[in-house]
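Thread: G protein-coupled receptor 65, structure

OP (GT): Posting the sequence first so everyone is looking at the same thing. Length is 314 residues per the record. Can we get the structure tokens written out before standup tomorrow? I want them in the notebook alongside the other entries.
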Amino acid sequence: VFAVDTQLRHSLQHRCDFFYMAVIITAIPCNIFSLFVACQHIRQKNELGVYLFNLALSDLALTVGLSLWLDFLWRQAWVHGQYVCLISVNILYTNFYTCDAFLCCIALDRYLAVVHPFKYTFLRGKVGIAAMVSIAIWVTVLIFNTITVTLEGVHYEKLSRCFDIIYPAPQIVTRVSMVRFFVGFVVPFLLVGFSTWRICKVVKSNQATEEQERNRILKLLTVILLCIFLCFGPVNVTMLLHTVVGDCRNAKWLYYMDDVSMAMTSLNCLADPLLYCFITETGKREIWKVVDKCRRVLTGRNSTTRSPGIPSVS
């Protein structure tokens, strides 16, 4: 049985249309700019740039999935066929868990650099290692999604629906949802939380660390922790709750949670650029250059303003 209160849910979904449109329009230029900033890190042989580059790629891919999702909400029917539905759901799931993984890699990289500066040097400061880790993440997530995301579980041709839930959920869907929740959300959140806690202790007790640099490190980790908790927590919890509801008559409230949690997840496209455009030295410097060029174009002045030196978090 397909559980959905059409009038109320359609009203909520229509309200999300302009929200998704604003996210997509903003996210595309932000993440293209983020790719450029990440390339600057990579040129400087900074492994952080590899993870940032892959984050931006994942977010750009998500904008494609969101565009199809927006079309679905606007029409209130899926018109693109079963295989496009399957691809779009794969894109969404891939973004959820690659972003989680890359954010976790950034936090662990900072953990090793700050808490164990003289240990595990073979893992840090090497772009090649970061590239291999990134490839491994993409391959693992894509293979898992290819195996677990099936047409029967995401596309319902008679109802013209995509990425909705039918009840009762098959046993395999329940097991996959539990794996996604614990491996794709709980584990990364605990790792980032542990890294943040240990780094905070070391940074606060280390008098040699400058106050500005200390604040920048803590800001970076705070943004990562909030990204995982706020952007990916609700959607993973909602997917898990779907598996424990056996009767569609009791699941109406979960569909409202679906819409809200999906909207929160889409904000990840805008939250990730904060990591490199507003916290790292390279990001701030490039933003300052863009702002300065725009100012000179608008005012017709040829003066160049230099950005002040900012200590690097990497």
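GT: Both are above now. Quick notes for whoever picks this up: Residues 75 and 106 are 39 Å apart (CA to CA). Residues 6-299 form a domain with the Rhopdopsin 7-helix transmembrane proteins fold (CATH 1.20.1070.10).
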